[in-house]
Amino acid sequence: MSQNSRSDRGMDPAVRSLSRSKLQDEINDFMSLLDSRAEERIVHDFLSRHSYFFYDLIRSNGFSTLYSKIKLGSDYEVDFAWFDTSSNGPEWSFVELEAPTRRMFTALGYPSQWLIHAIQQVLDWHSWIHDNLDYAKRLMPHVEYPRGYVFIGRRSELTPIKRKRLRRLQYEYRRSVEIHTLDWFVTSARNFQYTVTDHKGGNWEIPSGALGHGDLAKGCPVDAFKWLNSQFADNSKAIFQEYSLEEREQSALLNPDLFNEDRNEIK
Q1: What is the pLDDT of residues 9-37, one digit of tens each?
Q2: Domain extents for the chain?
């Protein structure tokens, strides 16, 4: 088994059967949910059944699957989680998802109460992990400084002033949180659409449906946890932990476009 790719378990039939037109229908369905201001649980349910809407974040040929509703003890619940299998070692990512009705900024351009709460939620997850590190690592091996993502509001609401303030917020929280609108998932799915052919499905080795907290607690999928507990993962994490954090800092300094909400938008 290679260091950075999963074993050949076969592609999820739901992914293999995808065509570009079918995926476009799913993108339209998701946009309809956003436009109709659906409840958060409905948006979450859709994403939990369509993991490839995370295409721009999850390594498609890595070992991690998408996990949904991960409990941090009895205190918190993470909407989605996964880990990356880079040469730097495993890095976990957590998602806080907000309903389409909750705006990112107020009419005057200040961070909304919902955005402030969502950012604080991610910071609280970090604090909980460090207060309960042994338990957290048993549940999610090597977790320590997870990368946080907040998805809130709509791209159409971002005026030039709000975009500037979003970039500033992104920079201030660059070590802990990335902030995006819910339209980010539409862009991600469109990018995935380019990998889809009508005869081979999509280039996505991850199951379309997310696994739950119980699966994670049982160490599933087995090959994912085999990689997490491998000597390679142990060694690379020990060596590159601080480098990974510095990389977040340097990316923000060296790439001015990093926090542009439209940077992955297909024109």
Answers
A1: 567 888 888 999 999 999 999 999 999 99
A2: 13-254
